[in-house]
Amino acid sequence: MPEWPEMEHYRKMLEGKIHNKRVTAVQVERERSLNVSIAEFTNRVQGQHIIAVQRRAKMLLMILESNEVMLLHLMLGGWIFYGQDQEKPNRTIQVQLAFGEQQLYFIGLRLGYLHIFTPAELTTRLTELGPEPFDPALSLSAFKQRLEQRRGTLKKLLTDQAMISGIGNCYSDEICHAARLLPSRLPSSLTNEEWFNLYESMHVTLLDALQAGGYMDQAFYAGDLLTGGYNHRCLVYDREGELCHRCGQTIIRNIVSTKKSFCCIGCQR
Ligand SMILES: [Zn+2]
To answer: How far is the CA of 175 from the centre of ligand 1 (A)?
Structure first.
């Protein structure tokens, strides 16, 4: 499932493509990807300019001039493509928004969805989320305090959207590896230096992944060479049996707090 780097990468690219553009047509093949009927969705979206593209946690928010918001959650398997009809991927498209000649395709929305909300509904929808990893209010001490309040492993807490939003299964493992900490560690066992390393690693890992284009498999537009650039740079995630780049030990896979997790027992403590 795309996480902070993938969705922030999408946000930046999408902003460049659709900011201030008008939705000229709406086509929906799968009504279940929406939260209202196709007719109502079309009525609320078609003809509207996109006045901003924002991200919250793992969700993209496309703000309409009516102040209503299209909220996209890709969940597992969803992705988006922007381009002309002849460039579109040979895949089933669930929703399609036209911006004149250009189209924004929503693909693989099985668990994922594109919902429309009023500003008040959106506020309610987002209320449970914890702070963003780069929220200036999330200082090292605030980060430590948040994680210490709840029981559970680093794996569980880092992926808990109510704790910190935007981190999932892949980057929780990458962050722990960067910090030389096992995902199974309990916050109560961390030294001050380890807290510092975890906090710094969270920022460095997410920014690195964003700059490399995240780990999505598919290009966002024809000729896009950036999207997915981080896929080959994950150091532990999905690398069971490979050798750790840092210490040469074999990377293992196990289950931590009911989640699949990868780590190196050579250099993570
Ligand atoms: Zn190692």
So the answer is: 13
